[in-house]
Amino acid sequence: MSDNKRTVDYSGYELLQVTRDERIVTVTINRPEVRNALNGALHEELGTIFADLNRDDACDVVVLTGAAGTFSAGGDVAWMREQWQNLAMNTAANRTGRRIQQALLDLEKPIIAKVRGYAVGLGCSLAVFCDFVYATPDAVFADPHVKVGLVAGDGGAVMWPQLVGYARARRHLLTGDPLTGAQAADIGLITEAVPDPELDAVVDAMARRMASGAVHAIRFTKAAINAGLKATAQPVMGVATYAENLCQFTNDNRIAAEAFLNKEKPTFTGS
């Protein structure tokens, strides 16, 4: 192995808080005032953080979580509304979304999601791309893209069928219906539901177990597992991101965004 060690400086990240504890790096999604919903700036930071973690030789394990008791409520609807019929914004956002998915699949180090509160939309996708997902029993997992006139193009169509099978994936991706953390654990979407007072300790124990293990064997085993997943993911990502881009030009997407902002139920027109 090379002796040229690289330690990455994460100080340039503004909406992701990055901390170190020995060889464990914790990344905290940090927009607590909006339940860690993703705007354009946060989306761009997520587009680079996992590649940075991958090249950080001082990191063996990653923990991904959210500030102020919630993981991430998904896309900021005001930001999503800005994208409606804006080809440049749509193209850039979809390109970044695909880069996030690919970087998570390429990440050599074990990554653990610690979920309280909401893991919705892209927030849910970020969680289920992780190697381990621990959540409180009352956490909320959902990929409700269809409820806002969109396709599950940020990873849901890739991961849900692999984790819970096609029947259950259809059940939740075609309706957008949510699951509790306990339900998500029962069907295999996540690793385990853990009572809130125990969650931090359980995640810390697994992170330290991974960090103290045979690091190269763990990484190569993860790479072997992900090899088949990557082969499946590529065509799915291509279809899903293209279809989501198309949906962002529909009236249904505009209607849903405006209804959400006005706290109303959308009336879709199928156009």
Could you characterize what this model shows?
α1 runs parallel beside α3 (87-106), α2 (77-83) packs antiparallel against α10 and α5 packs across α6 (166-173). It is built from 10 helices and 9 strands. By secondary structure, the protein is an alpha/beta fold. The termini are far apart. It has one domain (16-261): Alpha-Beta Complex (2-enoyl-CoA Hydratase, Chain A, domain 1). Helices cover 49% and strands 14% of the residues. The longest helix has 33 residues, at 215-247.
Proportion of helical residues: 40-55%
* Alpha-beta classification: alpha/beta
The CATH architecture would be Alpha-Beta Complex
Order of helices and strands: EEHEHHEEHEEHHEHEHHH
Number of domains: 1
Shape: globular
Uncertain regions spanning at least 5 consecutive residues: none
Main sheet record: 6 strands, mixed
CATH class: Alpha Beta
* Cα separation of the termini: 57 Å
What is the tally of beta strands? 9
Please name the CATH topology. 2-enoyl-CoA Hydratase, Chain A, domain 1
Helix count? 10
- Write down the overall mean pLDDT: 95
Please name the fourth-level CATH homologous superfamily.
Answer: 2-enoyl-CoA Hydratase, Chain A, domain 1
Radius of gyration: 18 Å
How do the strands of the widest beta sheet line up side by side?
A: 1-2-3-4-6-9
Indicate the proportion of strand residues: 5-15%
Family: Belongs to the enoyl-CoA hydratase/isomerase family.
InterPro entries: ClpP/crotonase-like_dom_sf, Enoyl-CoA_hydra/iso, Enoyl-CoA_hydra_C
Protein name: Enoyl-CoA hydratase
GO molecular function, one term: catalytic activity
